[in-house]
Amino acid sequence: MGETSRSAISYARLMIGALFLWLLLLSSSQAQGRMPVTVVVARQNAVTEWLPVVGSLAVREEIQVYPSIQGQAIEQILVEVGQQVEGGQALAILDTTDARMLLDKNSVSIRRAKAAVAVETSRLDVALVTEAETRRVLERSRALQPKGAVSQQVLDEHQNAHARAMAELGLARQSLALAEADAELVARERKEIERTIERSTVRAPDAGLVLSRTARIGTMSSSSSVPLFVIAKDGVVEFVAQVTETGFVRLRQGMHAQITMPGHGISLRGTVRLSDAQLDPATRSGEVHVELDERAKLVPGVFARGRINISSRQNILLPGSAVKSASGTSTVFVVKDGVVDERQVTLGSRRDGFVEIVEGVSDGETVVLKAGAFLKAQEKVQPVIATLNWPSVDHLATSSTVMGGEEVAQ
Q1: Alpha carbon 125 to its chain's center
Q2: Phi/psi at 269 (5° precision)
Q3: Dist. CA 320–CA 354, nearest whole Å
Q4: What tens-digit pLDDT sequence spans the chain (410 residues)?
Q5: What CATH class is the domain 62-95+201-231?
Q6: Cα distance between residue 390 and residue 384, in whole Å
Q7: Do residues 106 and 189 lie in contact, with contact meaning Cβ atoms separated by under 8 Å?
Q8: Which has the closest alpha carbon to 201: 328, 122, 90, 325?
Q9: Rounded CA gap, 400 and 52, in Å?
Q10: I need a labelling partner for 378 at 20 to 30 A (CA). Which of 94, 264, 358, 407 fits?
């Protein structure tokens, strides 16, 4: 039996008891000339307004994993759907045969480049020694030539020898720089090949739950629109629902929600994380996301129902029978000092036989339980106070349920 059925039974029992009490006091009241009337004392109660919604569990953020290298066959698959992975964990390995062949060739090139640098370094050392010797000879000849110990011809020969040594030294330096540049280029090529081999291992960008994989051993990697793997980042699952316009405009970030999954026996609490910035003009609805407090193992795609607390306040609550509505106006009968006063009221939420009184009745006032045509303003009555079983806060939930894009009134 549901909460609504139990509330209806309680309300029926209340009305039967009130009628029985009214009959018992009828004879004694007639003697005094006053008709007995069952009344209730108006009290402030908590009124919580909920917005029922229907949706499903969904991954908060999906990570689509694509290969970094195109045109290589998939050799190994290291994870399966439903497995938790860490950030940087290997998911699959592509064929690296070609890259490793290039790496071997690069190893030979590195040896050649190192040998070339060594040769040019030796040539530079020889050129430095030659330049130093020719410079000393030239300086000695220049010092002796004014004394007549060295002829001008010998001095010219020593100058030419030093000039040749300088030219050879410059050439040796250029050759060494070229050899070192070649060696650096080969080293960079090796790093690129090693990077290619590293990228041949497909890794998870972040931790999470593997939701799906299209990777198959032997298939070629490509930049198609289909990712090799789809991962739920951090495994976070939330509740997502479509809300029609009337309820959507009342949603605010941070509102509390309760989520249930029929058939699974799971009830969760959550908070509104975000909602669409605008409504879909075709359906006049928007999407709302509820962050769940619990991180239990939830399955994305599972149907769920939820309700969002859009308003909590304190107001007078009365049984629906106490309110008389006609021509768009609602009234109640207030009894004071045994005299009936008909008073206009402003109504709020309704549910389970109770109605919220926004204006018109104050806390502690006595209100006739069943407003009927037999009562008139300023009539003298004998009030009989009935005891009410007030509903819990959860029962005072009124709004609309979204089902299939349509609103179903509660």
Answers
A1: 66
A2: -110, 155
A3: 5
A4: 455 555 556 656 656 665 665 555 554 444 455 788 888 898 888 888 889 999 999 999 999 999 988 889 999 999 999 899 999 999 999 999 999 999 999 999 999 999 999 999 999 999 999 999 999 998 998 888 888 787 888 888 999 999 999 999 999 999 999 999 999 999 999 999 999 999 999 999 999 999 999 999 999 988 777 899 999 999 899 999 999 998 899 899 999 999 998 877 788 999 999 988 889 899 999 999 999 988 777 888 899 999 999 888 888 888 888 899 888 899 999 999 889 899 999 998 887 788 889 999 998 899 998 887 778 888 888 888 887 766 655 445 444 333 233 333 33
A5: mainly beta
A6: 18
A7: yes
A8: 90
A9: 6
A10: 358
Q: Which two tokens stand for residue 82?
A: 């439903």
Place of tokens 């040749």: 164
**CATH number for the domain formed by residue range(s) 55-60+235-309:** 2.40.30.170
CATH of 3-49+311-405, one of 3.30.420.40, 2.40.420.20, 3.40.50.980, 1.10.3210.10: 2.40.420.20
Query: What's the one-letter identity of residue 40?
Result: V
